[in-house]
Amino acid sequence: MKILVTGFDPFGGETVNPAYEAVKMLPEQIAGAEIIKLEIPTVFSKSCLAVEEGIQKYNPDIVINVGQAGGRSHMTIEQVAINLADARIPDNAGEQPLNEALQPDGDTAYFATVPIRAMVKHVQEHGLPCSISYTAGTYVCNCVMYNVLYMTQKKYPNIKAGFIHVPFATSQLIGKPATTPGMSLDEIEKSLEYAIEAVVLGVEEEGIVTGQTH
Ligand code: PCA
């Protein structure tokens, strides 16, 4: 089994992106699956093309894209991507789409096709916090998650895909308000590793209680 794992480059004034920093730290194999690592640009028009180039080059069975969600306290596995680009800040190329559809002929939303509840459970069972998120935002991460799911449905039906958001790394908290949450890169990397391991091992996901009341 081959798994393509991508991480974004730094954006929004940060000098690192914990997503790619943690992806770089992943082992070459997880539970016997080959891990292929790729950095992609935080640019609406380029990020998905970079993922597709990776798909064509490496022919993976699974694609996991990883991005930074500053302000979240732990790793979150995204359930849904929506057909909307609405950028609060310009991306790394100065692009700032406002209230635009990502794909005029795409579905309103797509769900991740990896077993997200099994991933959450497996990370938690290793003593690290992890939960499902029901919004990947409306910026470049949602754009990548949406377009990868659109693309796999239309062109690469055998590929399963999912998106993971990670919190700020501890080093990024310097100069931010004292209440800003973050995790060490080691913890972020381990969380990612267990999430991926759950997919490879086919961890059972029946009967796991998740969800939110607000
Ligand atoms: N996080 C941003 C884009 C790149 C990244 O790492 C997001 O959540 O949209």
Please provide a written account of the structure.
By secondary structure, this protein is of the alpha/beta class. It has a single domain, classed as Aminopeptidase (3-Layer(aba) Sandwich). Helices cover 30% and strands 21% of the residues. A 7-stranded mixed β-sheet has the order 2-3-1-4-9-5-8, with helices on both faces. The chain is globular, with a radius of gyration of 16 Å. The mean pLDDT is 97. The site of pyroglutamic acid has 12 residues, from strand 4 and helix 4. Residues 8, 11, 17, 19, 42, 67-69, 137, 139-141 line the site of pyroglutamic acid.
The overall strand count is 9
Number of helices, where a helix is a run of at least 4 consecutive DSSP H or I residues: 5
Helical proportion, percent range? 25-40%
Shape: globular
Q: Which architecture per CATH?
A: 3-Layer(aba) Sandwich
In CATH, what is the homologous superfamily?
Answer: Peptidase C15, pyroglutamyl peptidase I-like
Q: Poorly predicted ranges (pLDDT <50, ≥5 residues)?
A: none
Percent in strands: 15-25%
What would CATH call the class? Alpha Beta
Number of domains: 1
What is the topology, as strand order, of the major beta sheet?
A: 2-3-1-4-9-5-8
Order of helices and strands: EHEEHEEEEHEHEH
Largest sheet: 7 strands, mixed
Small-molecule binders: pyroglutamic acid
CATH topology: Aminopeptidase
What is the radius of gyration computed over CA atoms, rounded to a whole number of angstroms?
A: 16 Å
End-to-end C-alpha gap: 38 Å
Which structural class fits the helix and strand makeup?
alpha/beta
**Mean pLDDT value:** 97
